[in-house]
Design a protein that fits this description.
About 35% of the residues lie in helices and about 10% in strands. It has helices at about 20-30, 40-50, 55-70, 165, 190-205, 275-280, 315-320, 345-355, 365-380, 410-415, 425-450, 460-470, 470-480, 495-500, 500-540, 555-570, 580-595, 615-630, and strands at about 75, 105, 115-120, 125-130, 220, 225-230, 235, 240-250, 255-260, 290-295, 305-310, 315, 325-330, 330, 395, 405, 600-605, 610-615. β3 and β4 form a beta hairpin. The two termini are about 20 Å apart.
Length: about 650
């Protein structure tokens, strides 16, 4: 709701107003009294007719005339037109510079409504368009007044405390003052997060190369659009069977899944269905959840399919930390075949460990992995299950910007080695102890940055290297996990005291990450709001044949919006070059969306017409014009093929 630009009885009417003018219609509708306080329209017409665009009269004429109509109605602005104010505007033809002379400006109570003008018989008439008074609530206001608009207020100050872990944050953007146009990061999410999300989207939308996989089935049960995630099937050293991984879409819910196929394997027994249900019920932030297990003959054999959650662009710990060390400092390892079980000379193994010492992982990263792995293992062991796949090739790193890992392929080993004759309690306790030993070997390999560190003949050298490089807590944890002669009642909970207060550091980093991502989300929230505003604006401007009226977009409110579009996007400098400033675009769109009372000067491209309006009026024009488009009746003529229906939702 907006307040009128002039009082209700401001413009009088008389028989001297031409009847063909719209002013007569407005005057007849308003029907003001001609008592005290009314102004004769002849006086306005005579005064405005004496205005010229030359000399100082153009700068002060309107103010002097209107000032003579009602004393005290206008006051000098404290922002625009101050004496001695410098004009730093880079705008050229698209926006005239602000006058340096003190120009009378309407008081705050009358800066709300656009003034109509019409030229009839050589006389220009100015009149206020009918509007409604603002609704005032009778309820008692609280201690805070909330705006009816939304503007991005900049990143929170407390995020600067986490700059060492989260990277440099952009400076806070002031919603009132124009920010530096070169600091585009204040409007968008950080580039590294953007690139990671784009990469994940690209991987998600990837399609298989049918020339390399001509026999790939179109459907496997209720999954379709299969795309291999590996170049070829290879025998797994963990499960003992050839396996292949695909991504596919579930026809029942439309979600993407990761399908791991076990080649040439029959379902062992119906007695393991309870084991499958137990795995399907497990949910953890460091575990790739199992969703479904079924058999199929779509590949030409009896294959067992495990359906897991799909994480695009994830890579294994083997790829992240070990395969990249196969060639260091230009030296290709002739003994490195990718299989740590292949025998090598002892001197070569020791030199390889020492060579990787320069690339050893930070201890903070190792503790991050330990906390996540132990948390997932604790959840699995509490459910009466065991991992049995703590291998660098079966642990996924799902992000490039944060060290979050997930245990993958859980449950496969339980199915392919299922034996109904075994005692589940005894065999499960044995496998849980094996998980602790496998965790110790994994941490030892990560700490030494080499898979050779886990071999029996290299244990002494590896522990010496860890003692010299890392803290005693890390060494004691590895020794405890790899002590196979320890007590049979050992559990994953025993290492919690060794982790100690480092758990709080990880909790603090996780909360900081959540705050940082929430700040990035708030930026994109405001960007989405501005995008909707641009869609509305461009749906109106220069629209042809609206209600079979070719001039619809060039008249009335639409013409103002067209000039405002040029003011935002078509600015030029004093020498005629395009002036591109993202902060200017955001500044104008935010004020349009909020409908502020700030004045704006619009000019036609030929510089023959200059209009002064407010963002409040522009917002009303935008909403009314867009509502007119949405309520436009269907024409009787048939639609041509090139025309598309307008959106039906805002």
């Amino acid at each position: 709701m907006m307040e009128p630009f002039f009082p209700a009885g401001y413009i009088g009417h008389s028989q001297s107003i031409p009847q063909e003018s719209k002013l007569a219609t407005y005057a007849a509708l308003r029907n003001p009294s001609t008592g005290n306080g009314t102004i004769s329209s002849n006086h306005i017409s005579q005064s405005l007719a004496s205005l010229t665009l030359n000399g100082s009269n153009s700068a002060h004429g309107i103010g002097n005339i209107l000032g003579s109509i009602e004393t005290g109605l206008f006051q000098k602005s404290g922002t625009y037109g101050q004496p001695g104010a410098e004009d730093n505007s880079p705008l050229g033809n698209g926006s005239p510079p602000i006058s340096r002379d003190p120009t009378p400006v309407l008081s705050q109570a009358y800066q709300h409504v656009w003034v109509e003008q019409e030229n009839v018989g050589g006389t220009t008439y100015y009149y206020a368009e009918e509007s409604h008074q603002p609704e005032v609530s009778d309820e008692v206001a609280g201690p805070q007044l909330f705006p009816n608009f939304s503007v991005y207020s900049g990143p929170p100050l407390h995020l600067k405390d986490y700059s060492t872990r989260l990277g440099a944050l952009p400076p806070p953007a002031n919603p009132v003052v124009h920010p530096n146009p070169t600091q585009t990061g204040s409007f968008f999410m950080p580039e590294e997060i953007k690139q990671e999300l784009l990469h994940k989207n690209s991987v998600t939308l990837s399609q298989p190369n049918r020339q390399l996989f001509p026999e790939l089935p179109l459907h496997v049960d209720h999954y379709h659009e299969l795309c291999p995630l590996e170049s070829s099937a290879q025998k797994s050293a963990t499960f003992g069977y050839p396996t292949t991984v695909y991504k596919a879409i579930n026809s029942k819910n439309g979600f993407l899944y990761s399908l791991r196929r076990i080649h040439g394997f029959r379902f062992p027994s119906g007695k393991c269905l309870g084991l499958i249900d137990a795995w399907k019920q497990l949910q953890h932030c460091n575990l790739v959840s199992l969703r479904e297990v079924f058999t199929t003959k779509a590949f030409g054999d009896n294959s067992l399919i495990f359906a897991y959650d799909y994480f695009p662009a994830a890579e294994s710990l083997m790829t992240r930390h070990f395969e990249r060390n196969n060639q260091a400092n230009g030296y290709a390892d002739p003994f490195n075949t990718g299989d740590p079980s292949v025998p090598r000379p002892y001197s070569h193994q020791k030199n390889a460990l020492l060579r990787h010492h320069a690339n050893m992982l930070p201890e903070q990263l190792l503790w991050t992995y330990i906390i996540q792995l132990s948390s997932a293992i604790r959840t699995i062991h509490t459910a009466g299950l065991s991992v049995r796949s703590l291998d660098p090739t079966k642990i996924l790193v799902i992000s490039r910007t944060r060290p979050q890992i997930r245990l993958n392929c859980c449950g496969i080993y339980d199915i392919v080695t299922f034996d109904p004759t075994n005692n589940p309690v005894t065999i499960n306790q044995f496998h849980q102890l094996e998980d602790l030993l496998a965790l110790g070997k994994l941490i030892l390999a990560l700490a030494c940055n080499s898979l050779l560190a886990t071999q029996r003949e290299n244990l002494t050298t590896s522990l010496e290297l860890i003692t010299r490089t890392y803290s005693s807590d890390l060494r004691n944890l590895i020794v405890y996990l790899m002590n196979s002669r320890g007590s049979g009642s050992r559990t994953i909970n025993d290492i919690m005291p060794m982790i100690g207060a480092r758990f709080y550091n990880q909790l603090d980093a996780a909360n900081a990450r959540a705050d940082f991502l929430e700040s990035c989300l708030s930026k994109e929230l405001e960007n989405g709001r501005l995008f909707k505003l641009i869609v509305k604006l461009n749906s109106i401007v220069e629209r042809q044949d609206m209600n079979m009226d070719p001039s619809w977009s060039e008249t009335g409110d639409r013409y103002l919006l067209k000039l405002f579009r040029d003011f935002i996007f078509h600015q030029v400098t004093s020498d005629g070059r395009p002036w591109l400033d993202l902060s200017h675009v955001v500044h104008c769109l935010n004020r349009l969306d909020s409908g502020t009372n700030e004045k704006i000067t619009l000019m036609t491209r030929d510089e023959q017409i200059v209009l002064i309006t407010t963002f409040t009026e522009l917002k009303v024009c935008l909403e009314q014009s867009f509502a007119e488009i949405l309520t436009c009746p269907s024409p009787q003529l048939k639609h041509s093929p090139q025309h598309h229906p307008m959106m039906s939702s805002q």
